[in-house]
Design a protein that fits this description.
The protein has helices at 51-55, 156-160, 257-262, 369-378, 405-410, 426-430, and strands spanning 24-26, 44-46, 108-117, 124-131, 137-144, 150-155, 175-181, 192-195, 206-215, 230-235, 271-273, 275-276, 296-301, 306-313, 330-337, 342-348, 359-365, 381-384, 393-401, 420-425. It folds into two domains: 11-253, no CATH class; 257-440, Jelly Rolls, CATH 2.60.120. The protein starts with 23 loop residues before the first strand and ends in an 11-residue tail after the last helix. Helix 4 (369-378) links the parallel strand 17 (359-365) and strand 18 (381-384). The protein is mainly β. The chain has a five-stranded mixed beta sheet with strand order 11-20-14-17-18. A five-stranded antiparallel beta sheet has the order 12-13-19-15-16, with no helix packed on it. The protein has a four-stranded antiparallel beta sheet with strand order 3-9-5-6. It contains six helices and 20 strands.
Length: 441
């Protein structure tokens, strides 16, 4: 498999991103009799030039998807094209200098699709249509609006009929369809299906949401609105095109009192391990990614002249050329302003620098030329502290996505695989004469 290169969400890391070109191009809507789209109304989604070598590869299975459906759920017009339901709260930028809301990974893009209805008399079926982007992981998940608990999901490997631990780069450009059905509506036969939640009216409205996740798009290109999959609305009873429901914008995706309460009472600590996140933070909780069984995290009051050193044994991940059986599909460690639900920067697996024993050491501090030179000389990874003056508490969040069964039960977040943190002053970190140099890590 070709070398992985992810650039996803925070420009802080672009200085050391490798390149593995991915290109985007037009994926034009078929000009069927029912579809009267002119050339200037073309919608774009990710397209990767795989080249002749990939086109002839026998390693990539042929995906049989009927994109020329007739009858039910086939009409695609401007009326039932729901582009406006991809809302502004979506986090599509990739790279270390682009902090993200939603407690997300800065090397992932998050498309947020919402709808608001004021009656339950009609039922919907939504058709999602696009091409698989060149990325490490892709999924669609539906959530309750008011609880943000997960309802249903479908992962890339299920859509592509691939192995669960397989990275998606080799499937880039393959078309797919996924259907989302309202509660009580039968799945579309012979298709990939997920469901929206069963929900009554609250305050006269029914609100539902769907997340589209793209982890580590190759070459770190931002996902643009035009690159998002197309979603079409249909009447579940007749199968005919239906007018799209109204979207809703919601601050609840960005701020929540639970995040504020989580960091209350944080104290300055010099030596501490990560701990398991509360249950509402995990894959079944507040907008969590169900591909991550659970998260581990830690908080600390950190002064501007401090250095935090995080050390752990890195699991092997999908896409490493020398790994036959990866322990996880993807991992990343992120620095977060948890109270405001903002991720400020992350170190993803392929940008980490394991030592000869497989340990990763990450140094988190304000940018400092002398410190950064020392970090580089030691073979550590530098994660810049970009907190505002009023952000005196820092949170670190660590995720393992799709661990294999043996790793999850026996090693994940255990012993050497559990991150540990030491904090000291910048001068202590730089002082080569101290017996406990490098904060004693």
């Amino acid at each position: 498999m070709k070398n992985l290169s992810i650039i996803i969400v925070s420009s802080l890391f672009l200085v050391y991103c490798g390149r593995s070109p991915a290109q985007f191009g037009k994926f034009e809507v078929e000009n069927r009799e029912q579809t009267e789209l002119s050339e200037d109304q073309t919608i774009e989604v990710p397209k990767t030039d795989l080249g002749d070598e990939h086109e002839e590869s026998q390693d990539i299975p042929q995906i049989e998807i009927d994109l020329s459906r007739t009858g039910r759920y086939s009409v695609e017009t401007h009326v039932n094209l729901c582009d406006n339901n991809w809302i502004d709260a979506s986090q599509l930028q990739i790279g270390p200098e682009k902090p993200t809301d939603l407690s997300g990974d800065t090397f992932a893009a998050y498309g947020l699709f919402t709808m608001e209805r004021k009656n339950l008399n009609s039922k919907y079926v939504f058709k999602i249509r696009g091409k698989m982007p060149e990325a490490r992981f892709v999924s669609f998940e539906t959530y309750h609006k008011y609880t943000q608990n997960k309802v249903d999901q479908i992962y890339d490997y299920e859509i592509m009929n691939a192995d669960r631990m397989e990275s998606m780069e080799n499937y880039a450009g393959i078309p797919y369809e996924v259907f989302i059905t309202d509660d009580g509506v039968d799945p579309v036969p012979g298709a990939h299906n997920i469901k929206f939640p069963k929900a009554g009216l609250l305050l006269g409205k029914q609100n539902m949401s769907m997340f589209y996740r793209v982890y580590a798009p190759t070459d770190g290109e931002d996902i643009q609105r035009k690159d998002l999959p197309r979603v079409y609305a249909y009447d579940a009873e007749t199968g005919e095109a239906a007018e799209c429901p109204e979207p809703y914008q919601s601050e609840s995706f960005i701020l929540n009192q639970k995040h504020v309460d989580l960091v209350k009472g944080s104290q300055h600590k010099t030596d501490y391990p990560f701990v398991r996140a509360p249950s509402w933070f995990d894959r079944f909780g507040f907008g969590g990614n169900s591909a991550v069984p659970w998260y581990v995290l830690e908080f600390n009051k950190l002064f501007d002249d401090s250095v935090s050193i995080i050390k752990f044994k890195a699991p092997s991940y999908s896409g490493q050329s020398y790994v036959d059986s990866p322990q996880v599909r993807y991992w990343s460690l992120c620095a977060q302003d948890i109270a405001n639900n903002i991720t400020m920067g992350c170190v993803p697996d392929q940008f980490a620098k394991p030592d000869t024993d497989g340990f990763v050491t990450i140094v988190y501090s304000k940018a400092n030329d002398a410190l950064q030179r020392k970090v580089s000389d030691l073979g550590y990874k530098f994660l810049p502290d970009i907190r505002n003056e009023d952000q005196n508490t820092i949170g670190f969040n660590y995720r393992n996505l799709f661990p294999n069964n043996g790793f999850e039960s026996d090693m994940m977040y255990q012993r050497d695989y559990l991150p540990k943190v030491r904090t000291c002053s910048v001068s202590e970190f730089l002082n080569d004469s101290l017996s406990q140099q490098r904060c004693g890590i």
